[in-house]
Amino acid sequence: MARARKKAAGRSGDGARGKAGREDEDDSGRSRALLRARRVGLAIVLLAFVSGLWVAGWLLELDRTVVSRFEGRRFSVPSRVYAAPMVIYPGVDWQRLDLGGWLARMGYREQQEAGPLVVGHYRWLPGRLRVHLRGFDHPQLPEPDRKVEFRLEQGRVREMRDDRGEPIAVVALEPEPISSFYGTSREQRDLVKIENVPAHLISAIYAIEDRRFEEHHGVDPRRIVGAMLANLRAGRIRQGGSTLTQQLVKNFFLTPERTLRRKLTEAVMALVVEARYAKPQILEAYLNEIYMGRRGSTAIHGVGEASRFFFGKRVPDLALDESALLAAVIQSPNRVSPHRHPERARSRRNLVLELMEEQGRVPSLEASRAREREINLAAVALESGQDRYFLDELARQLPEVYDEELLSVEGLRIYSTLDTMIQHAAVRALHDGLEALEARLGPPPARSGEDPDEPPARLQGCLLAMRPQTGEILAMVGGRDYATSQWNRCTLARRQVGSVFKPVVYAAALSPQSGPLLTLASSVEDSPLLVETHDGPWEPVNYDKKFRGTVLVRDALERSLNVPAARIGQQVGIGKVVEMARRLGVQSRLPAVPSLALGTAEVSPLEIVTVYSTFANGGLRPTPRSFIGLLDERGVGQEHWPLAGARRVLDPGTAYLTTSLLEGVVDRGTGAGIRARGLRGPIAGKTGTTDDEYDLWFVGYTPEIAAVVWVGYDEPQPIGVPSSRGALPIWVDFLSEVTGERVRGAFAQPPGIERVEIDPRSGARALSGCPERRVEFFLTGTAPEATCPRDARRRRGFFDRLFGS
Amino acid sequence: MRDSLRALIRLTIALLAAICLSGCLGLDFSRSRRSGDRQLTVSAAIGQIDATRDASLRLVIAGLDEDTAGRPARALANYQRAVRVDATNPFAFLALARHHLEGASVEEASAFLDQARSLFENDDLHGRAVDVWGVGLRAGIDRELGRDAEADQRFDAARRLLPEIWGDERLSSAELR
């Protein structure tokens, strides 16, 4: 009923309210639209606000990123390791030192043009070499740059003069960089300061990369439009519109992907960078960051490193054409690499010079002269991977604060004891020796349980050279190939030492502390020996399984007889042998068992070379060292380890007697291969071959250098030759390259040693009638008093005595 | 014949008388040996072994000059470089021993002196330098270590050899040069 009334009322009011209703509807439509508009407006405002907030946040984030990078450490600069400086003086054999090779490796270039010699250049004249040496920093003694004329005669430096013609006594050459402590990125850079960058390098980069750099605010719309038109005409992307700031931002903060989002971020960040920092700061960052190509597996960043790599120069010394070439390379370092594509590089360099001329950045005459110049690159010296064994050892010696991460970013300059000439000889000798040995022996037989598809095991080796007086490590090659195995066999491997341990036993017996028990002329039995041990009876045998009866101590060591060595070990006591080994520098575990006398202990080559260095150094034990000092990236000294004196651990007399024994090994014994190769002068050494020829050793020394060679498989297995045919040839190759055929110096004969003629058969003092005689050395008061047997003397007839036999 | 014999006897008597007289007057014939000892300086050792030794000796001299000029760090660097050139040069270690003794690094001075002694033992030309310089330096080390009795004894021995050097119980870089 009520519903019917409402309906009727509605019908009756329709006419009256028609217009008004329409008006109302219009009003409400308008208000709804208004409301909608308001809502949309509000939404837009809100959206704009939120977007603004988001953009502001984004900008703040970008700003924060930019600031944190610019204000903090901008670049990771790997710490570089240097060898010891090479020293040149009148009389030195410059060919053996490989002075020419040094010039090439250090990036020195021959100067063809007349006129004053430019730093980093040299000039050959008949019988003369003129070099403008670069100055260098060093924790011990920095050197300024200077011009030196080397006057050469018959392979030697006859004299040296400076540019005023004054004679020079000694010249230290810039230490060679060996390698760097790269992080995972393997980037190398040499930072430059903007004030040291020549104006023509900056002009060249502006000309080709960003001619309006000084004017724009990070983004250059004219350049973008120009690039777009050029790309449209070409139908592909040919030209970029990025400014230097954008390139810097891309390299510093972003990935190389080509997306709109990345480009937008790049542009905004470029604006932020420009708003925050002055142009010179931005340019300096760019010059240090820009990618400039590769040297082997290392990426070169920045014009400093590129200048060193391409021209062997520091940035301030660059010539106009060289600056233009650096600028030319930036766009595409691999495609325009002057090493691989010299013509392409030259053409782009000339384009840079033309642009510089067009833009009025360089006078026409200079540009045209620069265009005519050939590209003259420094020789590329790739790092030898083999040097990294030394680097690893060096890192172990550094104070703990210099950890791996710090070394890879701090740009430290670390100075070492490595001698590049000796290191090169070591690398070559070990490589060639192992190749030759493998070629002779063929692949080793497969071991039981070994996968037949696996490649056969390869012989490994180590060569380590030390200076006996100082313990400086001069060369270290810890394996055959660092790329495949980083295990340093010189320092980390512990292998059975075999007969190279015997001199320790002999030294213990010859030392006055033991009595002395023996002299070099004492007799010792080479006959079957049985020693009861905790593990049952032990019966040593000689290498050839023969016994020789009574032999003299000298002969026993020269022939490396096992049984006499075992007997001497028993006589002196294994405890005393262990004590002697410890004093001489062995730190590894030494089981106090009778077989220790024959070298059953496992010891590292570094320890063994320290032992022999102590003999070479008259009983003074050096402390091995490979680190000299380091400078920070500003060249300020942070660490310096001065030379430390060696410590007396063995009396000089015993050290001399041991050296004399080991000279005998080289002159007549198992090391005679050294003399057969024509090496003359004072050389002492000892072969060592372990059971079944698992490990081959040769350790030897001269008065100036001690070196050890070890050869074997990482998983021990028979090699098939004794050390005289495996390790010794490598040692000889190495030493002859380092010293030449004539070894310098003499082994010091200390006071308290007397020379007495003995009968080599009986070891008794020789009288005039003795049929044979040889000089032997004794600690004073220990020479034999007995004379050679009367019957031996009688046997010689009148004419024998008269003319000798 | 008899006259000649007489002349020979007279000459001998005159010679003996002269020696006695000189002894009474206090003349010391051992001075010639001392002046020889003074020649055992680093400079005097140049030109006697080979080019390598000479280069090393020149670096030692450069180091001694730096020490004299009061630049011990540069002096040390030169000595170390001298060892690098020729590690068998005993004078380089002697200079290092002297340098460290001046700096009161007694342990290092002693070790370098041991090294110098070991190398001088092989040096026929300069072996006496062990006594001439080494005894006094060892005495200085004893003094630093408070072993005065040994120091006095050794300084006495050093003074007998070179009184003008060891009178002040100190070997200066200029004196060794």
- Give the total of beta strands of chain B: 0
Can you write the helix and strand succession of chain B as a string? HHHHHHHHHH
> Termini separation of chain B (Å)?
56 Å
CATH topology-level fold name of the largest domain in chain B: Serine Threonine Protein Phosphatase 5, Tetratricopeptide repeat
Radius of gyration of chain B: 20 Å
User: How would you name the oligomeric state of the polypeptide chains in this document?
Assistant: heterodimer
Task: Examine the secondary-structure arrangement and name the CATH architecture of the domain at 187-372 in chain A.
Answer: Orthogonal Bundle
Shape of chain B: globular
Brief digest:
Chain A is an alpha+beta fold and 805 residues long. Chain A contains 25 helices and 30 strands. In chain A, the strands form 10 sheets. Chain A has a 5-stranded mixed sheet. A 5-stranded mixed sheet of chain A has the order 3-4-5-6-7, with no helix packed on it.
Descriptive overview:
The complex is a heterodimer of chains A (805) and B (177). By secondary structure, chain A is of the alpha+beta class. Among the domains of chain A are: 90 residues, 2-Layer Sandwich (Penicillin-binding protein 1b fold), CATH 3.30.2060; 186 residues, Biosynthetic peptidoglycan transglycosylase-like (Penicillin binding protein transpeptidase fold), CATH 1.10.3810.10; 95 residues, Beta-lactamase, CATH 3.40.710; 51 residues, no CATH class. Helices cover 40% and strands 16% of the residues of chain A. In chain A, the strands form 10 sheets. Chain A has a 5-stranded mixed beta sheet with strand order 9-1-13-23-24. In chain A, strands 3-4-5-6-7 form a 5-stranded mixed beta sheet, with no helix packed on it. In chain A, strand 6 and strand 7 form a beta hairpin. The radius of gyration of chain A is 39 Å and the shape is elongated. Chain A starts with a helix and ends with a helix. Chain B is built from 10 helices and no strands. Chain B folds into 2 domains: 29 residues; 138 residues, Tetratricopeptide repeat domain (Serine Threonine Protein Phosphatase 5, Tetratricopeptide repeat, Alpha Horseshoe). With 177 residues, chain B is an all-alpha fold. Chain B is globular. Chains A and B meet through strand 25 of A and helix 3, helix 4 and helix 6 of B.
